[in-house]
Amino acid sequence: MPEKVLMKGNEAVAEAAIKAGCRYFFGYPITPQNDIPEYMSRRMPEVGGEFLQAESEVAASNMVYGAAGAGARVMTSSSSPGISLKAEGISYIVGAELPAVIVNIMRGGPGLGGIQPSQADYFQATKGMAHGDIRLGVLAPYSVQELVDLTYVAFEMADKYRNPMLILGDGMIGQMMEPVEFKEEVDPEELPRKEWATDGSPGRERNKLTSLALDAKVLEDLNLKIKDKYDRMREEEVRYDEYRLDDAEIAVVAFGTTARICISAIDELREEGVKVGLLRPISLFPFPSDPIADLCGQVDQVLTVEMNTGQMVEDVRMAVSGRCPVEFYGRTGGVVPSIEELKEKILELRGEK
Amino acid sequence: MMEKIASYPDALTDETFHYCPGCTHGITHRQVAEVIDELDIREETIGVAPVGCSVLAYEYFDCDFQEASHGRAPAVGTGIKRVHPDKTVFTYQGDGDLASIGTAEIVHAANRGENITTIFINNAIYGMTGGQMAPTTLEDQKTTTSPYGRDLKKAGNPIKVTEMLSELDGPAYLARVSMHDTKHIRQAKKAIKKAFKAQHQKAGFAMVEVVSTCPTNWGMSPLDAMEWLEENMLPKYELGEFVDEVEVE
Description:
heterodimer; A: Rossmann fold; 7-stranded mixed sheet; 41% helix; 19% strand; globular; B: 7-stranded mixed sheet; 10 helices
């Protein structure tokens, strides 16, 4: 049995990356994710890896592009405003079909915003990360243990699909401490060779990595090839969890930190006899649309709770397609909803039935 | 017995250059390729292409290549070099790419002493986008975005990147060369070779600024462009080796 250790989310994701075979990290300080580059700067030399504090997030994401192209398992992390800056590199990483892992420990926006937990980057993460017809696989953990487990998944998926993966946490997940255990370590030397990498290997045709295609048909073909990967992800990579949904009349849909608060509210309401359960999307792309659509036959209504003014709720409504009412409750700007206010909202819905 | 004294470099592919007639990119490409051949590093070299006229450099150099976003080639090169510290990594960038949008990346790569080689083409104009003002555009020089000539009061001053970087402690080799005549072309080749040797000696960052022409966007014949370069650019962009810590072999 692996030993359990008490770790802060930010440090746990860094250690999980190293255990998943990541040996290259390029970052830039921004609160509330500074523990990640700090941990990496300490640990990477111990495992023969490289840590580099870049001159900017823009540079960091382009260093990731270079290292990913050179065949390495590589990661960068940031928080909301910094992710906006990394967007340039991320689009090129998608275009050149390279694997990389990006961590966003979200804080409140827009602009400089604040440093408290937020889920306001849902749209950015799942739909509008950067220019071009691109998607990232997006994984949203609700505990430090899940953050660790999904980090391994993110590196595996990145290599499998040759597409960047985003781990979407928030200031709460990053800062809180929980006991975690790590799966078996991946030795990067044992990973399959990346035949396409620009690693200066002799005795083969040269490798070129580019996202430039001046011929529209060639560029369309590249886009369709990338789309095929997203379709495959929709078939093979949907992840979600259900909690006390069996006999539920109201289904709450929430991810990450918000889902934890919803679970506490659901437990208390169940004590009072309220039939309420939770569907928790873990992969935000691909989105668990089918299981959410399936709720319609069972529950009377769906409540989406987020730490923003209503983003994932659009995907929930699309999945439900008008077959049952979808309500939204959100707090934003770094305000974390309380168990009490969630209970009140759910009871209010029940009263309206 | 016949001796072969010149041939097409192995490090160039058979692709036909897309560069305009008279543009000096072709000469510089050839020189970089010859240096790669002479150092016998073609199969262990990874190039990084910029955004600009030489965006398609990866079609011409017969080695591994990554195409970077605008200005970020030194960051991309850093990523590659950190993964493969014993391979040869070079960036090839123009003046819009390196001296405008990419100033942070070049300054910090140089300052870290990142062990890569940069070939910096300074032709005082944006070529690919059709002749707009570059940070290196000279005073009163007319471009499509400085139609009355570059007004220093409003558009700032021509930037001397090599002098600027020579104030840093990271660079091991910094030189400015010119492509306007045979004598200077021969000197340029020597500088480019030294810039690769600096990397192989793990001495630190190395860059050669190549003062170049753009006959198309300057609106001149190739010959007039060479003369214009000599008369107008060289007084502003002094030639020479600004930093040289390369050990003589």
